[in-house]
Amino acid sequence: MRVASSTLYQQGLASMNLQQGSLLHIQQQLGTGRRVLTPSDDPVAATRALGVSQAQAVNGQYATSRSQANIALAAEENALQSVTTVTQNIQTLLVQAGNGTMSDADRGSLATALEGLYNQLVGLANSDDGNGQYLFGGTRSGTAPFTQARGAGMYIGDTGQQLLQVDVARQMPAGDNGRDVFMSVTGGAGYVIKGNSANTGSATFGAVSITDPSDPLHGKSLKVTFQANASGQMEYSITDMDAPAPAPALAGPTAYNSPTRIELGGVTFNVTGEPGNGDTLTMEPAREAGTDMFGNLQTVIDTLRQPTTTPSDTAHLGNVLATATRQFSNSLDNVLTVRASVGSRMQELDALNDVGTNRDLTYSQTLSGLQDLDYAAAITEYYQRQTALQGAQQSFMQIQGMNLFKYL
């Protein structure tokens, strides 16, 4: 059988090209450390590796979200720690303001000190993360959540929370809105008593004690009204503040003699002094009795700046301070509860980081098994391919040298 010289050349070149291609492929594998360079190298492994790589990338995104959440929560914890200190300082000044030996000027000085704490509190409520994002603005973090106006209604943020996807099935709040921190109380805050600012008598109230939470009237907002009967004897009656007017009396009229222990709805408190005709006290669940720290503090500041020239003025001051003491005790409990929640979330992030790190290690090990090169086997194959290429080259050279004219 005759074989054309061109065919011999083509076959020789094809053999060398094949061996060179194989050798180049192994060189690329050795250079990259990867066994699978293209899907055609191992379609099954390449498909699996793609899925694992995507899962690892998503896991990395979760890690980034956890880092962002941790930074935000750490900033919130720092701010709340300062809020705790300011609130405790307010409580200390409230106790001092209740000292009966203080003059109007002394109370004015305390009002000035409380105003400074008020400004500190507003500043803390408008804390940001250093990048212009306000910590307590809810989902409206680009705008300062609290205005500088005095009194209630200062909050202009929203009631939402910024959620970050920190793991496969976990969205975590990366902060708390200002309403929940500065204008709320915990569920177990109890009752708050207030005296009407228009009261004319000298009656003051003591602390509320809860005696029977199962009482059918427990949790209702109650009003105590003092009224003189036809003979001039002071009496009091208790009505439901939420009932439509005219609200029927839930208790009374009952004769009042100082001091008197008033009990209804599973709660009790003492009243001392002489109430004026028509004076009222309200007893409400804490969540309905003024939970705005700024509004409550402003009420105290304004009251301390008023002179106390009559027994009624003194009673009004004492009642305002008693109410504020209870309110700020509730506010402090609420801030501490939020701080506990922040700490719990940060601990959860630590646990999720451990899980995420282990998951990433598993993904890396899986990818290594699918893609990485066995260097010993690859080097052996490299020398084999090199030998094969050399053989193909020598064979081609021998064929190239074969010529009939040498035998003529």
Key descriptive features of the protein:
408 residues; single chain; 4-stranded antiparallel β-sheet; alpha+beta; 2 domains; 5-stranded antiparallel β-sheet; 11 strands; 14% strand; f41 fragment of flagellin, N-terminal domain
Main sheet, how many strands, which sense, barrel?
Answer: 5 strands, antiparallel
User: What percent strand?
Assistant: 5-15%
Poorly predicted ranges (pLDDT <50, ≥5 residues)?
Answer: none
Rough outline? elongated
Separate helix tally: 7
CATH level 3 topology of the largest domain: f41 fragment of flagellin, N-terminal domain
CATH architecture of the largest domain: Up-down Bundle
Number of domains: 2
SS elements, strand count: 11
CATH class of the largest domain: Mainly Alpha
Class by helix and strand content? alpha+beta
Identify the CATH homologous superfamily of the largest domain. Answer: f41 fragment of flagellin, N-terminal domain
Instruction: Record the strand order, biggest sheet.
Output: 3-11-6-7-8
Following the backbone from N to C, one meets helices and strands in this order, namely: HHHEEHEEEEEEEEEHHH
**Residues in helices, as a percent range:** 40-55%
Rg from alpha-carbon coordinates: 40 Å
Q: Gap between N and C termini, in Å?
A: 21 Å
Please, what is the average pLDDT? 81
Q: What does this protein look like?
A:
It is found in: Bacterial flagellum; Secreted. One of its GO terms (cellular component) is extracellular region. It comes from Cupriavidus oxalaticus. GO terms for molecular function: structural molecule activity. Belongs to the bacterial flagellin family. The chain has 408 residues and is an alpha+beta fold. The protein folds into 2 domains: 234 residues, f41 fragment of flagellin, N-terminal domain (Up-down Bundle), CATH 1.20.1330.10; 98 residues, no CATH class. It is built from 7 helices and 11 strands. Strands 3-11-6-7-8 form a 5-stranded antiparallel β-sheet. Strands 4, 5, 9 and 10 form a 4-stranded antiparallel β-sheet that branches. Strands 1-2 form a two-stranded antiparallel ribbon. β6 and β7 form a beta hairpin. α2 packs antiparallel against α3, α2 runs antiparallel to α6 and α5 runs antiparallel to α6. The longest helix is centred in the last third of the chain and has 61 residues. It is elongated.
